[in-house]
Each structure stands twice: as structure tokens, then as C-alpha cells.
Model the fold of this input.
Amino acid sequence: MATSTKTAITVAELDEMIEQGNQFLLLDVRNADEFERWKIEGRHPFETIHIPYFAFLENEEENIARVPKGQLVVAVCAKGGSSDYVANLLRERGYEAVNLEGGMIAWGNYYRTRRIPDTGTDLAIYQIIRVARGDLAYAVVSNGEAVLIDPTRHAEVYTSLAEREGFKIVAIFDTHAHADHISSGPRLAKELGVPYFLHPYDGIHPIDMLPATFEYEHLKDNFTFKFGNATLKGIHIPGHTLGNMAFLVNDRYLFTGDSIFIVSVARPDLGGRGQEWAPIHYESLYKKLLVLPDETVVLPAHFAMASKEGRADGTFYDTLGNIKRNNPKEYLAPSKEAFIEFMLSTLPVFPPQYVDIKRVNGGLLVPDEEKASELELGKNVCALADAYN
Ligand SMILES: [Fe+2]
Done:
């Protein structure tokens, strides 16, 4: 990338640089606690150094000297203001340095959209990837009609994709009431005048025991929905939530939501009932999902950068057979007792804001943009794997 005259890059350009494996130095100038909580990472490794903005203010010379020369420096902060200042300082000293426009806020709200290859002429699957958070949503299109699965907070990403690709959204599904991110499902469905589907168990906040404040269509096991020439079948898989669902499209594409990921499985405790839900989680995974044919294509709701799940074309999916073979045996091969014991003894930290995010997803709490973005700060921790932390 010719950057010598550039003073800033966009988050899309940064994503492309990381995907291409370009070498650069990421200079993060946020405070130590922000840096520890959430960093930029990607499929290809790159060097990151952390020198807080205030250190440059306190001792400019000494801290500039800590930045190695010889490669492009990309400076990042929370919103793109202080990193712009630092990138400027560096350029004045002869560095090739650019600012990341919009900082971590822009990175957190950035989406990469890819089409899943080889789905035949009758079906198109778009994977909408919220790169920084590890969230995956889908638009599944047949004969001009599309269903959205697990659309994230920024509804315009989905409506502009529909416009660009020339399809019509006819229904919106959430696999479950998400704890890690805000769904645009209910709002967008209302706006478009199309049905929004959720399992009724997930229409109740598991901790408040209060019902959702909006209308929705009820999902159930073996539910079917036709769009274009395609058929979506619902599979009720309680465990991560009580109303957790997977969707099987054309008996081949399995949208697993938070159940089976490419590496790891979903955690059972985000409703505050890990002990009680772990056994039913096991039953759902083993009796309803792992029994499907090995060639079934798994399209999950999350991915982990650190576990190298990404493909060269920027997508995240695999066959059920590969997933069974490649997962550590604790996740997908043990007895029920071993599974429960392993699950409950390795639960990652429970982010306190997840209780509020579930409230938002039930319409029980209505945040403004600032609050919504604060709730969604950082990566999701819906999986039971270090790689997802
Ligand atoms: Fe999740």
C-alpha cells in the first residue's frame, strides 16, 4: 500500500492489510487498562506496541525513540484523536506513520461481508462479519428472497447489502436472545414490515423473569419456513439459552448460532443457570446437532481470531465432520459427566454488562448510541475456549 503521502487509513483498509498479511507496526496509545481489555488482532500476526498518549506528552523524545523505524506505523486510540496527534509527531521525525480513523470505536463497528463459496446457483449465503467482536450474521438468499439470521446492532449494514445485491428481506431470525451484542432484529423487522422470529423461552429475560416488550413469531422444534426455493428448518437446542435454536437450510447449511463453533462450544451459564443448563446443553449438542451428516456445513454466530479459524477468503465456516475431527476432545467427544464437569470448571469470566444486553434484546432497556456502544465494548465471550477470550 502506498502510504507515504497518507496521514490516515480507514478500518476497512486496516482489515485488508491484516488479511493480506502486510507487515506494519500497530502503535496503541490508549491507557493500559483499555489496551489490556481489548486489542486489534487478525488472521495474520503483526507487531503491536503499547505506549500511552500521556507518555508522549510527558516525554516526547524518549517515547518516540521507543518506536522502531523501518516499517509503516499505524497509530490507534479510542476515537482517533490522540492517535492522530501521535502519528503527526512521528511523521515530523521522519516516520512513515498513519492514524487509524475513528480509533477502536470505528474498529468495533466495522463489518466485512463475504459470500460463502460453492453454495450452488439456487442459494447465496452472505456472511456479515463484525471483525473486532467476533460476531457473524447471515443473509441467506434464494430466488431474490432473503432471511437474516442474527443481525447485529447496525441494521443499515443489512439493508444496504440487500439493496446492493438486489434481494428482499422477507423474515428475520435470532437463534437466541443474545447476551454479547444487541440485535437489530425486532427493530428492523418492524421497519421492513416482516416477521421477527424468536423461541418464546428466549422472550423472557432469564434473570429478571420479565417478558419481551415487543411482538414476535414463536419458533419451535421442527419449525419450517420457506423463502424463494429454499427451506429453513428450526432445531430447538436448549443449553446456551433455553430457547436456543439452530437453523438448517436445504438440509445442508447449519446455522448453529451459539452452540457449536468451529473450535469450541457455547457456554451454558450466561442465563445465570450454568449448573442446570449444562446437562441439557449436552443433550442438544449430542442428540440434535452432532448426529447430522458430516458434510453439513456449519455457519456459527461467532469466531475466534486467535484460534485461526478464518479462511483465506475471509470467511468462517467448516463441515461438521472437520469440526468433530479438529476440536479438542473435551468439547465434542466425552461422556455427559465429563462434558458437564469440563464445562463448569472452565467457564470464562461472566461480563456483567451481559445482563443488560439481554435486557436490551428483550426491549426492557433502551440505550442511546453511547450506552449501546459501551455495552458492546470488546470481544464476545460466548464460547468456552481460551481462544475466544
Ligand atoms: Fe453470543
